[in-house]
Specification:
It comes from Massilia suwonensis. This is FxDxF family PEP-CTERM protein. Keywords: Signal. The protein is an alpha+beta fold. It is about 20% helix and about 45% strand. β2 and β3 form a beta hairpin. The chain is elongated and about 75 Å long. About 20% of the residues are buried. The N terminus is likely disordered.
Length: about 200
């Protein structure tokens, strides 16, 4: 009887270890954050914003998706943004691996993307563990709600961080362009006009 109980215990242990060996390994959870940008007017009808995120060593190995939202009302606008990772306490290795940077318009009610996202350009240099650098720009965009999305992975043992900036400028309307061109034409006509000499 004791021997059969012992064999049952060994058999149960073998079954449990086999099932655990076949189970998928636990993976780090993806970090998803959404933050409205704190914008600063530039005095010319546009605005600037500085933003970023920091990850701890406990988040090492995790993928992340950060959304930074803003809205523009009124005239069409141009937007330019950049993002750069920084090094912390992981000598000889990269702290963050930024894998994507994009700008898109979305519906604030449903959070659905409107139109196509504008993909950023990877400007990361070469060499051993270069600092990640990305840029994105959009011209003559319609007013509405927008998001800047940063995708990546925390690879440093001590975590990592990135910093970014955004510049939004209104696009002058057609009458403003016409006024500018008219002013330039008038300046050109005055410059070409022959000058009369004063009689002594």
């Amino acid at each position: 009887m004791k021997r059969s109980l012992f064999l049952q215990g060994v058999l149960l242990a073998a079954v449990l270890s086999a099932s655990l060996a076949g189970a998928p390994q636990a993976q780090a959870q993806a970090i998803e954050r959404s933050t409205p940008l704190n914008t600063v007017p530039d005095g010319a009808g546009g605005f600037n914003a500085f933003y970023g995120d920091t990850f701890t060593g406990a988040q090492s190995g995790s993928a992340f998706i950060d959304l930074f939202t803003f809205s523009v009302d009124g005239t069409p606008f141009d937007a330019a943004a950049s993002v750069t990772s920084s090094f912390l306490d992981s000598p000889g290795s990269k702290d963050l691996l930024i894998t994507g940077f994009s700008l898109y318009r979305y519906d604030p009610q449903t959070l659905a993307v409107i139109g196509n996202a504008i993909a950023g350009v990877d400007l990361t240099g070469f060499g051993s563990n270069p600092v990640d650098s990305w840029a994105v720009s959009g011209l003559n965009l319609a007013s509405g709600a927008y998001a800047l999305r940063v995708d990546g992975q925390v690879v440093g043992a001590s975590g990592g961080s990135f910093g970014a900036d955004l510049t939004v400028s209104p696009v002058p309307d057609a009458p403003a362009y016409a006024l500018l061109l008219g002013g330039l034409a008038a300046c050109g006509a005055l410059a070409r006009r022959p000058r009369k000499r004063k009689a002594a």
